[in-house]
């Protein structure tokens, strides 16, 4: 049955009601239209939306963003605990203060753009983008559940990301940092020459070290979330093997003396997990100062490992595998400048013809 428009009397005069059936066949209506033309327009839109599968019940959008955000958050069983914690922080700090009690049907593109503009005034572009991404995913759920017809977060203008240049230490600087690190010397050398993430290094067991082949097998990662250790797979969920220089391999093998296969390869003096925050407090940050280096973090040693590998001829795929990047494109995005230098070296080596060819050309030209 097609939608029908009927007038009815109120204290304020004649109003119009649209009666129609939902796609499920349930009869419903919407009242309060001041003009017949407005009622007919609504009726036509309802019929078109039903035919094209876009129909959304008016009451469906009354659910608040806060309620929907909780449902969305509870459904994120496919992400790592560290990612879930970042989502929680984004919701609490950026999304919910503005949208907690707003009906999802009342979230508009102009209102979202104004919110993004406001956030951008005093927050980093990366923080703003995370807030937008979380809000957009929540609204995607609203679209999926037919609470709104389309996602108003699509097409929002976001701040331009600031790509800070990675910090690369030279080999000499890396050795100096390791020397100043005291109990963290072997950790610094391993991070700086293999490119492991801190959580990957801290989770390594002795059995993951193959001294004969000089290979570390990265199969686990450990992160600290609100003071608690959480064990899981590496960032890309994929196991990988990482090569180790001969001289460093000897140091690692030496460090395993007296340890069992399930003991941590790198640990605190008591055998516990190395925590990034504690290491920075106890020895890393002071080592950076003592070595007179620019501001550098343990994660920056991944960049140093990449630059050293590239400087000795490693190609994009080799660096990608070593670092555990999801794609070679990601590796190029981070280290394109280093590979450009490598390409210049290649160009220099193939720049001209062999000398014999030059002599031949001169002889031919002399005729």
Model description:
- The structure is a single chain.
- The protein has 367 residues and is mostly helical.
- The protein is 50% helix and 12% strand.
- It contains 14 helices and 8 strands.
- The chain has a 3-stranded antiparallel sheet with strand order 1-2-3, covered by helices on one side.
- The chain is elongated.
Structural class: mainly alpha
Main sheet specs: 3 strands, antiparallel
Helix content: 40-55%
Strand fraction: 5-15%
Mean residue pLDDT: 88
| Topology order in helix (H) and strand (E) letters | EEEHHHHHHHHEEEEEHHHHHH
- What is the molecular shape? elongated
Unreliable runs, pLDDT <50, ≥5 residues?
361-367
Count of runs of 4 or more consecutive helical residues:
14
* End-to-end Cα distance: 96 Å
Strand element count: 8
Secondary structure topology:
Blueprint: E1 4-10, E2 13-21, E3 27-33, H1 36-51, H2 65-74, H3 81-99, H4 109-122, H5 125-144, H6 171-180, H7 185-194, H8 198-203, E4 209-210, E5 215-218, E6 221-225, E7 228-232, E8 240-243, H9 246-255, H10 276-290, H11 300-311, H12 316-323, H13 328-349, H14 355-366
Helix pairs in contact: 2-3, 2-5, 3-5, 6-7, 6-10, 7-11, 11-12, 11-13, 12-13
